[in-house]
Design goal:
It is a single chain. With 213 residues, the protein is mostly helical. It has one domain. Helix content is 89%, strand content 0%. It contains 7 helices and no strands. Helix 1 runs antiparallel to helix 2, helix 4 packs antiparallel against helix 5 and helix 5 packs across helix 6. The two termini are 24 Å apart.
Length: 213
């Protein structure tokens, strides 16, 4: 039994004349918990940003990998990094704003509104990451088929043997399956990390709705 449950249990034991004091105590507890949850959402997003910076530095040390995704006009790794950083920084800023709003003193109605806004922001963030990852896989596949020497050699050999169309169909299916598996993994990963926090945040929302009534 957590601190909120203990407060509610104590609230029920008191006389009706003390209900207002107890409601205020419960609100303070819900406010504190909601602020803490949103702070953790912000912290996790910052850690994720640091992780991607570290990963990009490791990728740049692989000369073969960087050569495949680099042409005279485009460097896919650099472009994908910039877009990824922009997405992460935008959502970190939004998460920070949500934290500032929830952390500030506000009415029950305003706190409920900000909780729902935070929940929606996290859901949009997960969808954007999934969509961007799918686009990234498609672009990476195009680069592989156009600039990977080993894959180009294999393609020409298959083309000469008359199985070009079959090779293209199998390749497309492979890319689609890869996108599906990657999306499923990322969805599960983000649901595990952010889902637990959102579940706790929504529980606070339900308790606040009872106070509002």
């Amino acid at each position: 039994m957590d601190e909120l449950d203990l407060l509610k249990k104590d609230w029920k034991k008191r006389e009706n004349s003390f209900n207002q004091v107890s409601e205020n105590d419960i609100y303070k507890m819900l406010h504190k918990r909601s602020s803490s949850i949103v702070k953790w959402i912000l912290i996790i997003s910052i850690c994720e940003f640091i992780f991607w910076i570290g990963l990009s530095l490791l990728m740049k040390q692989n000369d073969q990998l960087t050569n495949i995704y680099k042409t005279d006009r485009y460097n896919m790794i650099t472009i994908s990094e910039i877009v990824n950083y922009i997405i992460l920084l935008c959502f970190i800023f939004i998460f920070y704003k949500n934290y500032i709003k929830i952390n500030a003193n506000q009415s029950v109605k305003e706190l409920i509104k900000n909780i729902l806004k935070t929940k929606k922001t996290v859901q949009v963030y997960i969808k954007v990451i999934l969509f961007y990852s799918a686009i990234l896989v498609i672009v990476a596949s195009v680069f592989q088929f156009n600039y990977n020497p080993e894959l180009l050699k294999m393609y020409h050999e298959i083309e000469e043997s008359g199985y070009k169309n079959l090779f293209i169909v199998i390749s497309l299916l492979f890319v689609l399956i890869y996108i599906g598996l990657l999306s499923l993994f990322l969805w599960g990963f983000y649901k595990l990390i952010y889902g637990i926090l959102l579940k706790k945040l929504y529980k606070n929302y339900e308790e606040l709705k009872k106070l509002e009534l």
